[in-house]
């Protein structure tokens, strides 16, 4: 590997991002074909069930792919799924060298694609820009490794850490440009989740405006099925899906009324006074939902953090001060007894959005340790 490999892989990663929101639960993947120092083909996985990035790039390259180098952000598949194996297309194209950023931990691949190419006599390199490629597909990797969705916690707050004034009013903390970015994020999510307190206080729609590539399932954690039947969520449930995560404590007549108006009511076990979060996440994983956006309120976000179920935060910090000694803070829950025990996040990006400051960071989670090996060859590449 050399610096040139990293330059081309960076281009492949950029190409992969074009599929974000359109391919899940598949990974986003980019590929480019390079011959004599120039790109002769490039492509990305553009839609779920559609051709993979390698196939698109090789088709564009045509006969120029023979003897060329293929750069791909994720290990090529070697099994029949919704499409034929990409390894077959690579071999048929006559590519001489394949450079892969990271191994695919999906059980039907997991080193097999690399092994197939090496066995056929191709030069295969693994690992350039592996850290960037891992970050690119963290939600996919988490779903494969844990069968749980990737959880992003989002909130806007003042400089003194408030998400609302004492009476609950919160419109608007962040600026218009920040709110547009939130709608873009919603348009790439598989599901958006709030607690019943937020649902009642704000009466949100939880949709992306304008619509994005995905239509998110709207979820309300509602232990006793209290969501008002006249709420915006219920009134639009037949056009945009709504799931009520309730417990066995919810009155049957309330559940029946919500179902009759088009909501799905999922009965889950309760922990203390609220729905147990892990069984809910397990159900979302069984449905292959990859990205979950949790928008609050503070009690629900606190429960997610207490349960160790937040993978990333997306925070909008507005240049305002609210004051007051109330507890309208973004994350409540149990909290800690010592500041030394607080969780230190890895900052991914800090950017200015008009007058707001946007902070994006990831949390250390046990499943992430397995990702460190994806840029390295397996000891038993089979």
Tags for this model:
alpha/beta; 12 helices; 382 residues; 27% helix; 16 strands; 9-stranded mixed sheet; elongated; 5-stranded mixed sheet
Report on the structure:
The chain is of the alpha/beta class. It is 27% helix and 23% strand. The strands form three sheets. The protein has a nine-stranded mixed β-sheet. The longest helix has 14 residues, at 3-16. It is elongated. The relative contact order is 0.13. The model has no long low-confidence stretch (mean pLDDT 94).
Summarize the structure.
Helices cover 27% and strands 23% of the residues. With 382 residues, the chain is α/β, with parallel strands linked by helices. The mean pLDDT is 94.
Helix and strand topology:
Elements: H1 3-16, E1 30-35, E2 38-44, H2 53-61, E3 69-74, H3 86-93, E4 97-102, H4 112-119, E5 123-126, H5 130-136, H6 138-146, E6 150-157, H7 176-186, E7 191-195, H8 196-202, E8 217-221, H9 232-235, E9 242-247, H10 252-260, E10 264-268, E11 270-271, E12 274-275, H11 277-286, E13 291-294, H12 298-306, E14 312-317, E15 346-353, E16 356-362
Parallel strand pairs: 3-4, 4-5, 6-13, 6-14, 7-8, 7-13, 8-9, 9-10
Antiparallel strand pairs: 1-2, 1-3, 11-12, 14-16, 15-16
